[in-house]
């Protein structure tokens, strides 16, 4: 049944995404926040379809820690699930991502309409400058900025290198950081066709004040909180 349910989910996504993306392209003349609200309808629909077909739900711990003002969200990356769920859990947001994703037919085109911060990772310090410039602009526009500090999805029980980009942006703009941990990889693994039924737990930490904290120290504090929280999720 897991194979059948996972196939039904993928079938629905394959059928719905091109149609939705085509409609999303027509939102180009609209203000950024209006475009965001309309475009995130796709993520909400996919989460609903995931629950219906695969029996995969989620619960949120620490929802009260979400600031009322824009912040930088640094999140554990294990699955494609969090790329959907964060859009439903947090206020309007933009994502820091590699620019190559925008070239993917349909998916990338719709993603481009959501005002992401697309950077060239190979550019080194120039990429950091671009991240700060565009990140500062998006924060002023009222968007939260979402970054996966490990850069790529990692398997449950493992830790990737926490890159400094997100902490650097927060430190340079003196913006609070909200760390996020979750165990989605146990139900929907990296590049996995199978989606196992169950309830994913996502935990939101208290905002970290970045005033007077250097990017290196901030990055270490975020990593320490997320990795410690990962060990506790199954007990909560």
Give a quick set of tags describing it.
single chain; 236 residues; alpha/beta; Glycerol-3-phosphate (1)-acyltransferase; 7-stranded mixed β-sheet; 7 strands; globular
Largest sheet: 7 strands, mixed
Distance between the termini: 29 Å
Rg, Å, rounded: 17 Å
Unreliable parts: none
Please indicate the count of domains: 1
Task: Name the structural class.
Answer: alpha/beta
Range of strand content: 15-25%
- Taken in chain order, the helices and strands follow as HHHEEHEHEHEHEEH
Mean pLDDT level: 92
CATH third-level topology = Glycerol-3-phosphate (1)-acyltransferase
CATH top level?
Alpha Beta
Helical segment count: 8
Strand order of the largest sheet: 1-7-6-2-5-3-4
Compact summary:
With 236 residues, this protein is of the alpha/beta class.
Give an account of the 3D structure:
The chain is α/β, with parallel strands linked by helices and 236 residues long. The chain has one domain: Glycerol-3-phosphate (1)-acyltransferase (3-Layer(aba) Sandwich), CATH 3.40.1130. The protein is 44% helix and 15% strand. It has 8 helices and 7 strands. It has helices at residues 2-25, 32-39, 41-54, 81-89, 107-112, 125-140, 165-173, 215-232, and strands spanning 56-61, 72-75, 93-98, 117-119, 144-147, 177-182, 198-204. Strands 1-7-6-2-5-3-4 form a 7-stranded mixed beta sheet, with helices on both faces. Helix 1 (2-25) packs antiparallel against helix 3 and helix 6 crosses helix 7 (165-173). The longest helix has 24 residues, at 2-25. The chain is globular.
